[in-house]
Every structure is written in structure tokens, then in C-alpha cells.
Write a structure and sequence with these properties.
385 residues; alpha+beta; eight-stranded antiparallel sheet; six-stranded mixed sheet; 9 helices; 27% helix
Length: 385
């Protein structure tokens, strides 16, 4: 694995106001063993098919869903596929996988590491939350016959730690606010670190635009863009009236990435409760989006994602934290799928500009890192063996 980045070095060791993941660790997950991947505001995994790009994004999304409080079975419907292929079961026929990440923010770097048992039963068998060399939360499976893990969290009061059971199908870090009172400085430090981790993880939007789904007219509804971008026309209808400044940037991006002249991107109601999208070519000529190529549709959808935010995307932001202190992370597997070299370059440059502002981050996978490695601000993780 090689890593390159043209991001400008920090002038001072100031803590970021917005929590963000700075490292993804796959100690044992699918095709990865003892892997550590740096994450920047804009990170692109590259490498040949089978090198583990999708697996890395899959692990990141799993951590995000666990951080949002999802049950283990919902996050890993096929957990055996996450176990490294050559992993041998122990004497009790147990096999599993281990993933983790580091999040930097106001509390400094906070590490989370999770061990999951996939066979014979799916359960979390170990979790550790650390900051500044101090273990803030640690869990372990003590009694396989009970569906709980024994947890110990930092207290620094009359006793160094507090112990208690936690369910083995949820991330303990996400449950800490319900279990820790915050009476001591130690407990307040635990809660602050857990909040930083959860805020960074849960604000994730996994996006994989499907051109086939985007070609049809979309019913008018909440106007929040779905993962496959089925309702692209509806969201264009909404965003055009809400923010003319950002919409003008979208039109500029579409003009750079689509074939032929583009003077505007429109959406019009059809009278049956649905809306369709069109490109205004000028001189009265309009092209229905259903006539565009797959690459053009994916490019348009991804540009829209980068130019909007949590209020427009189908994502669950941390409602208890001010929006100014949150960062939305977009996960885009196959970012360049169906795109030509020009479209990929335009999209990555747009992503670099948006990520530089701090309100959005992007972790994506592309087939050829040579196309993007010279764009300033991009961290390229090359998984070529």
C-alpha cells in the first residue's frame, strides 16, 4: 500500500472544531490484515479489482452505522463474508473480524477498536475506546452463555473504573451517554470522547447513484436524496428554489461534465404528482435526463451530493450537536464508475473545493489513482499489491 497527499501541512497543532476520522484500521477484515489507512478531508482508495477498495468502504460504513446505534445483525447481515478467508477457528469454533478508527476533534485523537465474533454466533466480543494513552472504555466477553459483555469505563472518582454489563449486539461507545452520569472529571472525559466519536461516525451518507433509477420521473415528497439517487428530479426541484447560489455552482459543474451545451438544469412537474428533470441546451432545446448516458447521470448526481448537505441527503445527523460543529462524510464506492477521464477530473476537483471548506468529507474508491493523484488536497491510498 502507498499513500500520497498534496494537502498543505498544518501551521499549528490546533484541534479541529468538527470531528472527523483520520485513520481506518482493519486488523482482520475480509481481504485486509493489519491494515492502517490514513483518512483526510478527501480520501480516494485506488487499486485493481480485488485489492480491497470496497472492503475498506464497507468497514467504514459499518462503523458509522454502529456509531448511530444500529444493531449488529442489521449492520452485518452476512458476517461470515467479513472474516478473512484463511482465518482458522479456535477450539470453540469461533471466528471473527476486527475493525477500528481514529477520530480527531476538540478532544484530540480518540481511538475505537471493535472485535466481532461472526461464528458460531454474531456478537461484539471486545471494544476499546482510548484517548491520550488512557483507556476510557473496555469491554470483554466473559460468559458466552449470556448475551452481554462486561464493560469497564474510566471514572477517576472513589474508584478508578465503573463496571457493568452492556448488550453484545450494540456498540458500547454509542450507549455510554445512557449509562455514564458524568459526575466526575473522568466520566465527563469519557462522555466527551464518546460524543466526538459518535458525531463523526453517524453523519455518513453512502452514495451509489443508479442511472436506471434516475431516468424515471420522481414523485414529489420530502425532497431528501436517496442512496441510489432514485428521486434525483425531485431533489433538483427542491434545491433550485432553496439556494440559488449553490444551484448556480451545480449548473456550472454539469456544464463541465456533460456533453453538449448546458445553460441550465431544470425540473418540471408533470401534473400527476411527479416531476422530471431536464437539461436546458439553449435556443429552446431541452433534453430529458432519461436520454443522458450512464456516466453523465452519475456525474450529475455526485455533483449534486457534493453541493448540498445533510438537510437534502437521506442521512441521520446528530441533532443534539450544532450543524456548525458537524461534518458530513460521503462514502462513494466506484466514484469513477462509468465516467470518462474528463468527468472524473472535474468531479474530484469539485470534491476538493467542497471538502476544503470543512462541512463535507469524501471517502471514495476509484479504479485508477493516476487520474486524481495530482489534485491538491487529495489523499490517495493505493492498494496495488
Amino acid at each position: 500500500m502507498t499513500v500520497s497527499s498534496l494537502a498543505a501541512p498544518a501551521l499549528a497543532e490546533a484541534r479541529p472544531d468538527r470531528p472527523g476520522a483520520t485513520e481506518l484500521r482493519l486488523a482482520a477484515f475480509a481481504a485486509h490484515r493489519r491494515a492502517r489507512f490514513p483518512l483526510g478531508p478527501l480520501t480516494l482508495f485506488t487499486g485493481p479489482s480485488g485489492s480491497g477498495k470496497t472492503g475498506a468502504l464497507r468497514a467504514y460504513e459499518a462503523l458509522a452505522r454502529l456509531g448511530g446505534g444500529a444493531a449488529l445483525g442489521e449492520v452485518f447481515p452476512d458476517p461470515v463474508s467479513c472474516v478473512p478467508e484463511r482465518a482458522r477457528p479456535d477450539a470453540q469454533r469461533r471466528r471473527g473480524f476486527r475493525i477500528g478508527c481514529t477520530v480527531d476533534g476538540p478532544e484530540g485523537p480518540v481511538r475505537l477498536d471493535v472485535a466481532v465474533q461472526a461464528e458460531p454466533e454474531l456478537r461484539i466480543v471486545g471494544e476499546r475506546l482510548t484517548a491520550g494513552g488512557l483507556t476510557l472504555l473496555e469491554t470483554a466477553l466473559r460468559d458466552p452463555g449470556r448475551r452481554v459483555v462486561q464493560a469497564a469505563w474510566h471514572t477517576a472518582g472513589s474508584s478508578a473504573v465503573t463496571r457493568g454489563p452492556l448488550p453484545d449486539d450494540r456498540l458500547g461507545t454509542a450507549l455510554l451517554p445512557l449509562r455514564v452520569a458524568g459526575r466526575t472529571d473522568g466520566e465527563r472525559r469519557v462522555l466527551a470522547a464518546a460524543e466526538q466519536m459518535v458525531v463523526a461516525l453517524r453523519s455518513v451518507y453512502a452514495c451509489d447513484p443508479s442511472p436506471r433509477r434516475m431516468r424515471a420521473a420522481a414523485p414529489l415528497g420530502a425532497g431528501r436524496l436517496l442512496r441510489r439517487c432514485d428521486n434525483l428530479a425531485e431533489v433538483l426541484w427542491r434545491t433550485r428554489s432553496e439556494c440559488g447560489h449553490r444551484y448556480a455552482h451545480l449548473v456550472t459543474a454539469v456544464r463541465a461534465g456533460c456533453a453538449g451545451p448546458v445553460t441550465d438544469v431544470l425540473a418540471e412537474p408533470l401534473g400527476d404528482g411527479t416531476v422530471r428533470a431536464l437539461l436546458d441546451r439553449g435556443d429552446g432545446v431541452r433534453t430529458h435526463l432519461g436520454l443522458l448516458g450512464d456516466g453523465e447521470l452519475r456525474y450529475l448526481a455526485l455533483a449534486l451530493v457534493l453541493l448540498t448537505g445533510p438537510g437534502v441527503l437521506e442521512v441521520d445527523p446528530a441533532g443534539e450537536v450544532p450543524a456548525a460543529l458537524q461534518t458530513l462524510t460521503v462514502l462513494a464506492d466506484g466514484l469513477d464508475r462509468g465516467l470518462d477521464v474528463r468527468q472524473t477530473g472535474e468531479l474530484v476537483r469539485l470534491a476538493a473545493r467542497m471538502c476544503e471548506r470543512g462541512h463535507i468529507r469524501l471517502v471514495g474508491a476509484v479504479g485508477d489513482g493516476v487520474r486524481v493523484c495530482e489534485v491538491p488536497g487529495v489523499t490517495v491510498v493505493d492498494l496495488t499489491p
